[in-house]
Amino acid sequence: MARPFRPVAVMRAGPNDHLGVLLSTYATSAILAAAGGHEGEGGFHTPSIADFFPSGILFEGTIFQIDRIWIIRIVATLVLLSVFVIAARRAKVVPGRFQAGVEFLLGFVRVQIAEEILGKENARRFVPMLTTIFLTILAFNVTSVIPGLNLAGTSRIGVPLLLALWVFVTYWAVGIRKHGLGGYLKANLFPPGVPWPIYFILTPIELLQLVIIRPGSLAVRLVANMVAGHIMLVLCFAATQFFLIDSAGSGLMAFGVLTLPAGIFVTLFELLVAFLQAYIFALLAAVYINMSLEEEH
């Protein structure tokens, strides 16, 4: 039986993980824009939300519109599938570096997420789902720092929301199958040991958490972090170009010595965030499923 798990620290890692840095990003953008002139006049061009809604490449204006982010998602999916097909076909008893790397990722999800939260017996049922979630998010996140792509496939709400809905349907289905609809709702909405007047406050909150807060927080946390990361990256490297090229010969060139290392640091930081966001999403998915399996909530 898996031990009870309450991810207090993890749950607090909300969509404002980048908030302080992002606020300073916009402040810096304003300063640079003032120093470099207005948009379209050769001055500094600030990053914006418009970056995440590029023009359509095919079927523009329809529900089937294909744009840059869709292409990025397709590329990431094909690469991810290719990696595992190659690893499966070339699998050996004594793995090489490539096979060992793939096995490390699979083992990480199985041991550190599924078995750690759900226990070995329950983990077998959900390892495929959790592995798919983790690797999909990781692959889509990493595209934010790959030259030529430079946008995360998870930086628009569609994919994160779809994965969050998958988790939502799963933990409801698991809970209902385990306890029945009435038992599942009773265990979650009317936890034992609470004075009955408190239920008037607690029950609506718990219902809101079951239906909206859990899946909503999964999707919003992921999107917010990847949007903030992209804006930070664009700011650092656009500022470097502005200081070192557009402002060549002026006193502003000295600032490029700071913004270039900052861009490299943010790139490495974004790789860490890409992994952490995939881990947190899969971890919380396992936690929510485990909470539905517990006898008491």
Automatic annotation (TrEMBL):
Protein family: Belongs to the ATPase A chain family.
Keyword Transmembrane: yes
GO terms assigned for molecular function: proton-transporting ATP synthase activity, rotational mechanism
Cell compartments where the protein resides: Cell membrane; Membrane
Keywords: ATP synthesis, Cell membrane, CF(0), Hydrogen ion transport, Ion transport, Membrane, Transmembrane, Transmembrane helix, Transport
Its job: Key component of the proton channel; it plays a direct role in the translocation of protons across the membrane.
The protein, known as: ATP synthase subunit a
Superkingdom classification of source: Bacteria
Species whose genome carries this gene: Promicromonospora citrea
Predominant subcellular localization, coarse grouping: membrane
GO CC, one annotated term: plasma membrane
Membrane topology: Multi-pass membrane protein
Keyword hit for Transmembrane helix: yes
Transmembrane segments: 70-88, 126-145, 157-174, 194-213, 222-244, 264-289
Entry-linked NCBIfam families: ATP_synt_6_or_A
